[in-house]
Design brief:
It is built from nine helices and seven strands, in the order βαβαβαβαβααβαααβ. The protein has a single domain (4-233), classed as NAD(P)-binding Rossmann-like Domain (Rossmann fold, 3-Layer(aba) Sandwich), CATH 3.40.50.720. It has a seven-stranded parallel sheet with strand order 3-2-1-4-5-6-7, with helices on both faces. With 244 residues, it is of the alpha/beta class. It has helices at residues 13-24, 37-49, 64-78, 101-129, 141-144, 150-170, 188-191, 195-202, 213-224, and strands at 4-7, 28-33, 54-58, 83-86, 132-137, 175-182, 235-238. Bound molecules: NADPH dihydro-nicotinamide-adenine-dinucleotide phosphate. Residues 8-9, 11-15, 32-36, 60-62, 87-90, 110, 114, 137, 139, 182, 184-185, 187-190 line the site of NADPH dihydro-nicotinamide-adenine-dinucleotide phosphate. NADPH dihydro-nicotinamide-adenine-dinucleotide phosphate binds next to helix 1, strand 2, helix 4 and helix 7.
Amino acid sequence: MDKVAVVTGGSRGIGRAIALELAVQGFKVAVNYRSQEAQAQKVVETIRGMGGEAMAVQAHVASNRDVEEMAKRVKEAWGFVGVLVNNAGITKDNILVRMKEEEWDQVLETNLKGVFLCSRIFIKDMMKARWGRIVSISSVIGMMGNPGQTNYAASKAGLVGFTRALAKEVASRGITVNAVAPGYIETEMTQGLSQKVKEAMLGTIPLGRFGSPEEVAKLVSFLVSSHGGYITGQVLVVDGGITL
Ligand code: NDP
C-alpha cells in the first residue's frame, strides 16, 4: 500500500518542512493551504524535483465542506490516507480587554475546530484499516501562556485535551494520536517580531537559539514512522528548553 500523508498548512514554515521530510520518507504528500496557492505549488514542485509525489489542495480547515472536498480529492487520487498532520494555525494577538470576538473566533476555528474536522474525516478510513497516525502541532504557549495570546493559548491547550481523548478512543484500532509543541521556531509567524522582543526571547531559551522548522519536522516524521508506534496521547516538546 502507498504511504499517503496530508499536511494542513503545508505551504510554508513548519508545515512545508514536514511535507518535505515526509516526502523524503517515501510519502505521497497532499500539501494543504488556504489562500497562497503559489507557495503550495512551490512545495509540490520541490517534492517532485526530489523524485517524490505531491499535490496541492486548497481548503479552509475550519470549513467542513472544504475539508470533505479535500479528503475526497486526495482519496480519489491516492487511496487510503494513513497520516494526517494538523499543522495549519494562525495568531490574532491582542490583550484580552481589547480582543475582538472575531479575533477569538478565527483563532479557535482554525487552530482547534480545524483539527476536529480534519481528524474526524480522515480517521474513518484509519479505523477501517486499523492503522493510522495523527499528529497535531500545538505550542509551548498552550502550556506557559503568553500575554496577548489568550485565544492562541486556549486553542493550543485545547488541542492537547483533544489529542489525549482521541488517543484513548482509537488506540484499540492501531491508531496513534499525538501533539508536538514547538517553542520559538523561525518562520513567517515569528518573523514579524521586533529585534528587541527577539533578543528578550533568546534570553529565556536555555539552548540560546530559535529552532528551525526542520527540527520540528524530524520529530513529526519519527512519530508517524514505525519507530513511533508505541507512542500515543503524548505532547512532545521541541523548544530548546524554554519550558524547563
Ligand atoms: P506560518 O504562518 O508560516 O504558516 C501557516 C500555514 O498554515 C500556511 O501554510 C497557511 O496557508 C496555513 N493556514 C493558515 N490558516 C489556514 C486555514 N484556515 N486552512 C488551511 N490552511 C491554513 O506558520 P508556522 O509554520 O509558523 O506555524 C505552523 C504551526 O505551528 C501553527 O499551528 C503554529 O501555531 C504552530 N507553531 C508555530 C511556532 C513558531 O514559532 N513558528 C511555535 C509553536 C507552534 P496560507 O498561507 O495559504 O494561508
